[in-house]
Amino acid sequence: MDNQKNNFIFHRNWWDSLHDESNELIGAFLRDLCQYAFCGEDSEPLPELRLSIRHAKAEMEQDVKRYQETCERNRQKAQLRWSRVKDTTACKSMPSDAAACRSIPMDAEHADNDNDNDNELSKDNNNNKETKAKKDISLIMSPEYTNFLEWLKTNCTHLLKMKIPTEVEYKKLLALADGSKTKLTDKLLAMENDKSVPKKKRSIYRTCLEWLKRDKR
After folding, report:
1. 162 DSSP assignment
2. What pLDDT digit, counting tens, does each position of 83-122 carry?
3. Helix (H, G, I), strand (E, B), or coil: what is residue 93?
4. C-alpha pair distances (Å), 3 with each of 55, 125, 135, 139
5. pTM
6. How many helices (H) and strands (E) does the chain have?
7. Longest dimension (CA), the chain
């Protein structure tokens, strides 16, 4: 990272993955990111934060890249407009020179192209927002949630046809299972063995929530 940076974007999904952690881990996370953004120091994070820090740094690099690309597009558009202004001024100052004024119809064509460029820039920005929104879903994940997703992928192939629970939803299910990962995974395996579940249900979280609540009645 550029050590001349004065700020960086702090993404909401970073906080979502850390708000239940200790103050010590949150402080270490912020310290490592600030050192990376402002000083260019890529220090070794705590083991508990290694995955979160790696994803956060990757997202910071993408933020910088998108900013630089936007600056470059704006610079090129400014140069295009400035060249048209200079060409038009030259034509007005030499009305008898037909060759010099040939640039006028070319500039009219460029003006239309400039509108196209604006539309393309708008589309690029929209695409960047959509891409970022998709990345925000899973870029920053705690090691526990990552292990859960790996277990789900390995042991519950039929359930993968349904909507995968977010980290927040996973923690709610775990709490309803009295904090027992064994109890939660047993319930998911029971859902996996019931082949009608993926056909009738759409969300792993909502279905498992119903099954766990049913056991508590």
Report:
1. S
2. 877 666 655 555 545 444 444 444 444 444 445 555 555 5
3. helix
4. 19, 26, 25, 24
5. 0.38
6. 9, 0
7. 94
